[in-house]
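User: Let's play a game. I give you a shape written as tokens, and you guess the letters that built it. Ready? Here's round one.
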């Protein structure tokens, strides 16, 4: 298929896709547009190891290896070497197909051309690298970004379908989400790192269900021995919009919707390592995106980087916090 030859089928209404606002605005701290920055990619809350070639940000676009799309998102990927064209498909919950050609800024979503998505697929170190936002959103996922103050950041991909990253290994001790009892949401044993980060994150955090108000204050960094970990955060609040949250100041999020999530990321940049991640979310958000089946009424859920989902009260208890 020649992507350029089908431009007569362009539908202007789809151009909004190309300029869709990020979950959290990407900033590069004044860095050169050509500078490549490191990035962490999370799919449905799970940080993904990309061993084939590292993900990176260039000109404010995040690139991942083409194979990542198949392995992490569970999509079928076909590469047409003669046309230098990748065809990416998903069948559930509904069929979507994205076609993206090497060195072209147009992509095709379900036979409709979307012009100038911002950055073309390219080759980096003999690997085909593709812009993950364009492909993920074309397949029906939502994509957000939490920047690090020193450059780079964390990409958050949420899919309405189950991905390989969500499938527990045989050795996991986590209780399957399909268990409808509340007991599994009420046991949490913090790791050594979480014993450091947890009190910093959760001791100042309070929830007022009567006014749907979440209050907290995150530091810009957390020091653990010789290491300084960077903290970043963002809010997804249903139809009310998405935004980055500043660290170092008191946040009082008033009147949150019934469908919200606050993402808190803690990274050690010299090793490009994720230390911890906490997603604090409403029952509605947890049910829609993380398969929550419990029966709590007006409390919040916490999903951590080890795929544990527990109530906020359980986190308080495990950390010895009396809020």
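Assistant: Ready! My guess for every position:
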């Amino acid at each position: 298929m020649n992507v350029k030859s089908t431009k007569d089928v362009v539908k202007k209404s789809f151009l909004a896709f190309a300029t869709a606002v990020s979950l959290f605005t990407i900033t590069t701290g004044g860095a050169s547009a050509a500078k490549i920055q490191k990035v962490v990619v999370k799919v449905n809350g799970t940080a993904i190891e990309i061993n084939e070639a590292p993900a990176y940000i260039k000109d404010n676009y995040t690139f991942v290896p083409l194979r990542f799309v198949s392995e992490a998102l569970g999509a079928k990927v076909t590469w047409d070497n003669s046309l230098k064209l990748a065809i990416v498909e998903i069948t559930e919950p509904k069929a979507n197909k994205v076609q993206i050609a090497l060195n072209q800024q147009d992509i095709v979503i379900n036979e409709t051309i979307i012009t100038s998505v911002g950055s073309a697929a390219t080759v980096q170190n003999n690997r085909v690298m593709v812009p993950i936002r364009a492909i993920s959103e074309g397949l029906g996922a939502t994509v957000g970004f939490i920047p690090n103050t020193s450059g780079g950041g964390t990409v958050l991909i949420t899919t309405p379908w189950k991905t390989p990253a969500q499938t527990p290994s045989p050795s996991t001790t986590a209780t399957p989400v399909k268990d409808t009892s509340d007991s599994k949401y009420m046991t949490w044993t913090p790791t050594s790192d979480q014993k450091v980060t947890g009190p910093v994150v959760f001791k100042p955090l309070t929830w007022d269900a009567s006014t749907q108000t979440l209050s907290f204050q995150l530091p810009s960094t957390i020091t653990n021995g010789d290491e300084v970990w960077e903290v970043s955060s963002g809010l997804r609040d249903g139809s009310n919009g998405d935004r980055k949250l500043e660290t170092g100041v008191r946040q009082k999020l008033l009147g949150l919707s019934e469908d919200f999530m606050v993402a808190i990321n803690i990274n050690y940049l010299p090793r490009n390592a994720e230390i911890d991640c906490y997603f604090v979310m409403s029952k509605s958000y947890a049910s829609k995106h993380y398969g929550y089946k419990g029966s709590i009424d007006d409390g919040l859920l916490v999903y951590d980087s080890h795929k544990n989902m527990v109530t906020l009260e359980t986190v308080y208890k495990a950390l010895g916090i009396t809020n």
